[in-house]
Amino acid sequence: MNRALARQLIELNNRFYRENASSFSATRQAPWRGWDRVVEELIAARPTAATHLSVLDVACGNRRFARFLAEKLPHTRLTYLGIDNCSELSGAGDASAPSEMASTGGAPASEVVITCDLLSALLEDEDPLADIAPCNLLCCFGFMHHVPGSELRSVLAEWLVAHTQSGGIIALSCWRFMDDKRLATQARAVTRNCRAYHPDLALEPNDYFLGWQGNADVPRYCHYIDEWELDDLSVAACASGARELERFYADGDGGVLNRYLLLQKA
Fold first, then answer.
1. pLDDT at 59
2. Of residues 141, 131, 143, 139, the one with CA closest to residue 168
3. Which of 79, 161, 164, 204 sits a CA distance of 20 to 30 A from 217?
4. How confident is residue 93, by pLDDT bands cut at 50, 70 and 90?
């Protein structure tokens, strides 16, 4: 995928989240069931994370993963850094947003959120977090499907490894929307409509557009990452110094809406 089209798709999604931050956040309040398994595998692979955990949450949205961790690990000293390009969604810069998360066990936890368009920076071979210390949990949930182009997805996987401490864990989730009949029907219909108005779109295989809450006129770009492409992401991460721990399905009514990939940095 050429960079000009990648930038257009990134901006399309940036605009979608700016304009629909409130309604989107309202549908993203409960934790995903797959997160429990991520934490279990994290503690098994890195036992020290049970007492101190530093987290980098890429595309953190409304920071519900931070809240989940504070409740799941009440006696862990949690240092959380979230990055997202939509301050309307993340609450970055909001005076009412808490700078301290008190876990249920009373252990203090620091929380920082940075507004950052990571994909646009990576397209320009820039690292906006070059000065940030590596963390021992890098998570990227509900975001990989918004990354346009196989090359940029591999670059992001390599970037995640680069920002992970030795022995740390990288957790990715890939939305399998084309495995859901309702979502797949919507994706095909909205994509046909977008192609009719923009016949010159040079999309890659498995690229789609989806509407929002039944409205096809509010499109967002989504890529369906199949198992072959998940292999490619794993290969890119492993070439950068990680090793694959496991893959599993979780979330949604049937427990298969997301495909997770867990890696550990050597």
1. 97
2. 139
3. 204
4. low
